[in-house]
Amino acid sequence: MEKENIAVGLDIGTTKIVAMIGKKNEYGKLEILGVGKSKSLGVARGVVNNITQTIQSIQQAIQEAENNSGYKIKDVVVGIAGQHIRSIQHTDYISRHNPEEVIGGNDIQLLIDQVNKLAMLPGEEIIHVLPQEFKIDGQSEIKEPIGMYGGRLESSFHVVVGQASSIRNVGRCIQSSGIELSGLTLEPLASADAVLSQEEKEAGVALIDIGGGTTDLAIFKDGIIRHTAVIPFGGNVITDDIKEGCSIIEKQAELLKVKFGSAWPGENKDNEIVSIPGLRGREPKEISLKNLSKIIHARVVEIVDQVFTEVKAYGHEDPRKKLIAGIVLTGGGAQLKHIKQLVEYITGMDTRIGYPNEHLAGNSDEEISSPLYATAVGLVMKSIENKTQSAVRMDAVEQPKAPAYRPTVVQTPVYETPEKLEELEDQNASEKQNSTVNRIQRNFFDRYVDKIKDFLDNAE
């Protein structure tokens, strides 16, 4: 039987952690086999700040995805974001020994490896080296150099850089959760794969992914990534503003934002009021929807202004760099009412909401095709590119597992046979060793039981 190419993406966000298992169907579309979602604890503005809580949240999402799909996850492609991410433009070249030979993939790899050796600031690490346009012996604007002749191969690169410690913390959380890390991808690149069409990337488009803790930006033109940025604000700061402005608790503020929130204050009439139950024996609070949308509007304007500053920094006002396809909004923040109109008003650019359903199989769950899951879908698509089997069927896993536990059962009987003195000494030594093994196994089972308890508590 041919091995299935099962792909797994793990989106470690500030608000939620999503584990998604999928595979390509016969039509080349993405079929989602299972999704696990947990509240993200231990992540702030896209950066892990509590290892233990993050591991628990990851394990819960993984467990749910495994239960929903019937597959056991082995490795995942993870999205990376956070305010420590920055991108730089860099140009590099190689001189080829034999210009009479055609340029091959190994020449491009040599060039990429050279860029990977760039000296970074202390504590920084290169995440992605993305070739843009090539030059061969001075001939510019070459998109595909393979198969051409030339002595000097030059290229401009988009280099994405992040803090080494933050990247290692993410890796550690994943390995401590009992799975392997098969790849790291910048989150805006994953979201772009999920919601943008090739035509948009050619025409020029800015993807804005408004998450809970960060707002990610990716700009494409002529089918090539031109600019990326991570802004350390997202939907959570809007919730915090509502909490402060209306003097209510966070849970109520989030509910107000989702159910009644609007980014356009003119839409609400002065007499529209929502009543919120007071805390323990206190009077209910009456909140004007007009005031609520004023609070939301102020913060959304600030976020969009910061993103637009990045779009201008790319050079959008230059006619050759114009983004004809405008802006695509995705992420949980894109579900805020009237945000599309506000973004169009501030930037003067065409705007649409990006749904990941273009790449999904027709029978996909409606919830998965929401902008909320754009990054997770993009990460599964990245995992498919790796052509590895990231998950295996549970029934294929559980059969070989049984013998692994047998030795612990066999160790319990004590055989009262006459033995030599030396052998008794050996037995004492091995008993000592066994007690260590049993202790390790006990620790493992205690941890496993705790994990199940956590899972059941959160499921209530």
Automatic annotation (TrEMBL):
<dbReference type="InterPro" id="IPR050696">
    <property type="entry name" value="FtsA/MreB"/>
</dbReference>
<dbReference type="InterPro" id="IPR043129">
    <property type="entry name" value="ATPase_NBD"/>
</dbReference>
<dbReference type="Pfam" id="PF02491">
    <property type="entry name" value="SHS2_FTSA"/>
</dbReference>
<dbReference type="GO" id="GO:0032153">
    <property type="term" value="C:cell division site"/>
</dbReference>
<dbReference type="GO" id="GO:0009898">
    <property type="term" value="C:cytoplasmic side of plasma membrane"/>
</dbReference>
<dbReference type="InterPro" id="IPR003494">
    <property type="entry name" value="SHS2_FtsA"/>
</dbReference>
<keyword id="KW-0132">Cell division</keyword>
<keyword id="KW-1003">Cell membrane</keyword>
<dbReference type="GO" id="GO:0043093">
    <property type="term" value="P:FtsZ-dependent cytokinesis"/>
</dbReference>
<dbReference type="Pfam" id="PF14450">
    <property type="entry name" value="FtsA"/>
</dbReference>
<dbReference type="InterPro" id="IPR020823">
    <property type="entry name" value="Cell_div_FtsA"/>
</dbReference>
<comment type="similarity">
    <text>Belongs to the FtsA/MreB family.</text>
</comment>
<feature type="domain" description="SHS2">
    <location>
        <begin position="7"/>
        <end position="195"/>
    </location>
</feature>
<keyword id="KW-0472">Membrane</keyword>
<comment type="subunit">
    <text>Self-interacts. Interacts with FtsZ.</text>
</comment>
<protein>
    <recommendedName>
        <fullName>Cell division protein FtsA</fullName>
    </recommendedName>
</protein>
<keyword id="KW-0131">Cell cycle</keyword>
<comment type="function">
    <text>Cell division protein that is involved in the assembly of the Z ring. May serve as a membrane anchor for the Z ring.</text>
</comment>
